[in-house]
Design a protein that fits this description.
Layout (H helix, E strand, L loop, with lengths): L1 H13 L16 E6 L2 E5 L6 H16 L2 E3 L2 E3 L5 E3 L9 H17 L5 E3 L2 H23 L2 E10 L5 E12 L3 E3 L1 H11 L2 H21 L7 E4 L10 H11 L7 E6 H6 L2 H13 L2 E7 L7 H5 L4 E4 L1 H6 L4 H16 L3 E4 L5 H9 L4 E2 L10 H8 L20
Parallel strand pairs: 5-6, 8-10, 10-11, 11-12, 12-13, 13-14, 14-15
Antiparallel strand pairs: 1-2, 3-4, 7-8, 7-15, 8-9
Helix pairs in contact: 1-2, 4-5, 7-9
Length: about 400
C-alpha cells in the first residue's frame, strides 16, 4: 500500500493544472519522499502563491481517497496534510519540516482527511502541550490529583444517596486545572488507565475515612475509561482496594459509557461479570447518547442508568426530551434499575423528574462538585437537601 500511495503522490505532483510557478510554469523539480512509517514529504518548488499549494494538497487528499486494492482486499485510507511555506515558516530544511509536521498534527486534530497551513501559534500550542504532558506525568506520581465530589440526591426525601468522584489537578503554580484540559491529554498519552487507578484508590481511601469518622458507608461512583475495562488485573485490583480499606463492595459504583459496553470484547465482559460477582455496582453514564441498544441491559450486570444532562436540560420546554426522560425512567423502573438524572439545574426540572418518579438527581441545583472537607460537612447533615412540599418544590442548599 505504501508503494501505491507513493505512486499516487507522485502523480498528484506531476498533474500541474491550475498550479503556476515562478520558473517554468510547471512543478518539474519538485520532490516526493517517504519520511518514515506512513509519513511522506512533498517539496513544491517556486510556487507563486499559497493557493497553489492548496490545489496540490486537495489533489493529494482526493487521490488517496480512492480505495486501494491490495491482494484482493479493498483498503480505504485518509490523509492529513501540513503545509509550511519558505521563507515565512523557515529558511532551512529542518525548520520547514518541523513546521509542516506541526501543521499536520493540527490537521489531524481538526478531523483528519484535511490540510492545515502552519502558523506561529502552533509552536506555542506544541510547547504548552509538551509542558503539560511532562507535568501531568509528575502530577500522577506526586499526588497533585485531588477529588471533588458531587452528591446524588434522593428525589423524594432530599437525603444524599451517594456521590460521584470527579478528578481535578491541583498544580502548585498553575492552581486548579479543569479535567477538560488534561483528561484528553491523558487519553492521548496512554495515561488514562493510570489516572483511573489513582482515582479508584483515592475514592476507596476517602470512603474509609468517612466510615472511621462515623459518617456511615458512603457510596462513591467512579467513571473509568474504556481501556481500564480491558485490564485483566482490574477486578483483582479493585478487590484488593476494597479489602485494604475495609469497604463493602456495594459502596463502589463503577461508571461506564454505552459505547464501551457495546464495543467491549471478551476481556471487558469478563471484568464486568467478575465485578458483579464481587458485589461492585455498575452504572451506565450518559444513557441515551450512545448506541442506545437495549440488548446490553439484559446482557450486562447493570445496576444504574444515568440520564444524560442534554435531555434533562430541555425536558421542561421540549416535549420530545420530556418523553425520552419519561421512557428511560419507566424502562429503568420496570427492569429494576436505579435511575439518576444528571445536570439538574432548575426547580422546574426537579419537579418534572419527581412527577415522573425518577429515583435520584445530580446537578448544580443541589451542589457543584466540592472538595472532601465540604462534602464531609454535607454528610454530617441528616437531610442536606430538604423537599418542603408535595407540589411546590423548595430546596435548602447546604453550602
Amino acid at each position: 500500500m505504501l508503494h501505491e500511495a507513493a505512486e499516487r503522490l507522485v502523480n498528484c505532483v506531476r498533474d500541474t493544472d491550475e498550479v503556476t510557478t515562478a520558473e517554468s510554469g510547471s512543478l518539474e523539480g519538485s520532490m516526493v519522499a517517504r519520511l518514515g512509517g506512513d509519513e511522506f514529504i512533498v517539496l513544491l518548488r517556486d510556487l507563486l502563491q499559497p493557493r497553489d499549494a492548496v490545489v496540490v494538497a486537495q489533489r493529494i487528499i482526493n487521490g488517496l481517497s480512492t480505495p486501494f486494492i491490495i491482494e484482493g482486499h479493498e483498503l480505504v485510507v485518509t490523509a492529513s496534510l501540513g503545509i509550511a511555506m519558505y521563507p515565512t515558516d523557515g529558511d532551512n530544511v529542518e525548520d520547514l519540516v518541523k513546521a509542516a509536521d506541526s501543521a499536520m498534527y493540527a490537521a489531524k486534530s481538526n478531523g483528519r482527511n484535511t490540510f492545515q497551513f502552519y502558523s506561529k501559534e502552533m509552536n506555542s500550542a506544541a510547547y504548552e502541550k509538551l509542558s503539560l504532558e511532562t507535568k501531568l506525568r509528575q502530577a500522577i506520581d506526586n499526588g497533585q490529583l485531588i477529588l471533588h465530589y458531587q452528591p446524588k440526591v434522593d428525589i423524594r426525601s432530599g437525603a444524599m444517596f451517594g456521590m460521584e468522584a470527579l478528578v481535578r489537578w491541583q498544580h502548585p503554580q498553575w492552581g486548579l486545572i479543569a479535567p477538560s484540559r488534561f483528561i484528553p491529554l491523558a487519553e492521548e498519552l496512554g495515561l488514562i488507565v493510570q489516572l483511573g487507578d489513582r482515582v479508584l484508590e483515592m475514592s476507596c481511601q476517602q470512603m474509609q475515612l468517612w466510615r472511621e469518622a462515623g459518617l456511615g458507608e458512603v457510596c462513591i461512583s467512579v467513571n473509568l475509561a474504556s481501556p481500564s475495562f480491558l485490564k485483566p488485573s482490574l477486578t483483582p485490583e479493585i478487590a484488593a482496594l476494597i479489602q485494604k480499606h475495609g469497604l463493602q463492595p456495594q459502596q463502589l459504583i463503577i461508571e461506564a459509557t454505552e459505547s464501551m459496553l457495546i464495543q467491549s470484547g471478551s476481556a471487558a465482559m469478563n471484568n464486568l461479570q467478575a465485578l458483579q460477582a464481587l458485589g461492585v455496582q455498575l452504572s451506565i453514564d450518559d444513557f441515551g447518547t450512545g448506541y442506545s441498544s437495549l440488548t446490553y441491559l439484559r446482557r450486562f450486570p447493570v445496576n444504574e442508568l444515568k440520564i444524560d444532562q442534554s435531555f434533562v436540560a430541555e425536558m421542561t420546554h421540549n416535549t420530545d426530551d420530556a418523553a425520552i426522560v419519561a421512557a428511560i425512567v419507566s424502562l429503568g423502573r420496570n427492569m429494576n434499575r436505579r435511575i439518576v438524572a444528571e445536570g439538574v439545574e432548575t426547580i422546574g426540572q426537579a419537579r418534572a423528574l419527581r412527577n415522573q418518579d425518577c429515583h435520584l438527581m445530580q446537578g448544580f441545583l443541589f451542589s457543584r462538585p466540592v472538595p472532601a472537607d465540604e462534602m464531609t460537612r454535607m454528610l454530617s447533615l441528616p437531610y442536606p437537601f430538604a423537599w418542603a412540599a408535595e407540589e411546590s418544590v423548595s430546596i435548602e442548599i447546604s453550602h
